[in-house]
Design brief:
Elements: E1 7-9, E2 15-17, E3 25-31, H1 40-51, E4 56-62, H2 74-85, H3 104-109, E5 128-131, E6 137-140, H4 149-158
Parallel strand pairs: 3-4
Antiparallel strand pairs: 1-2, 3-5, 5-6
Length: 161
């Protein structure tokens, strides 16, 4: 099964076909509205705007597994993201990224090691998985901000030709 075969819905409940990202570079991020890292939404939106016309997208996936920092309903999450940070990138339904209820997409993504060689559970909100066209994944931990040169360089290298 490829990363693109996992079933996921948008915040509004309509299907989100991950195959739509197959020929793009996509940064999948588990997001939360009430976290100290929430201001990263601003940088994620800037990345999305800067590279969208070059075959790139951010995909935000809300998760409430870290100290209940994403307690809102789908409508509350959508409103918060658009009014507070002007988010235009796609947002998926709220899912679990760790544990027995872990969504299949994150079961696959968490098999990927980060720069230090560590795979396994998502460590906190705003963990980032850069999926290049064709499915190769690079993992960035939550402390790596969207403006980090290593992340920007990886995105630019993953853009479709």
């Amino acid at each position: 099964m490829s990363i693109y075969d996992h079933q996921l819905n948008r915040l509004d409940g309509t299907p989100l076909d991950l195959h739509d990202f197959e020929d793009k570079a996509v940064l999948i991020v588990n997001v939360a509205s009430k976290c100290g890292l929430t201001p990263q939404y601003e940088g994620l939106e800037k990345l999305h705007e800067e590279y969208a016309d070059k075959g790139f997208s951010v995909l935000g996936v809300p998760c409430n597994q870290f100290l209940g920092q994403e307690p809102g309903s789908a409508e509350e999450i959508a409103t918060f993201c658009s009014t507070t940070y002007g988010v235009t990138f796609p947002l998926a339904e709220k899912v679990e990224v760790n544990g027995d209820g872990r969504h299949g997409l994150f079961a696959e993504l968490t098999e990927v090691s980060d720069a230090e060689g560590n795979a396994g559970d998502v460590s906190w909100n705003f963990e980032k998985f850069l999926v290049a066209p064709g499915g190769a994944v690079t993992r960035f931990r939550p402390q790596v901000v969207p403006e980090d040169p290593a992340l920007v360089e990886a995105i630019e290298a993953a853009l479709p030709a």
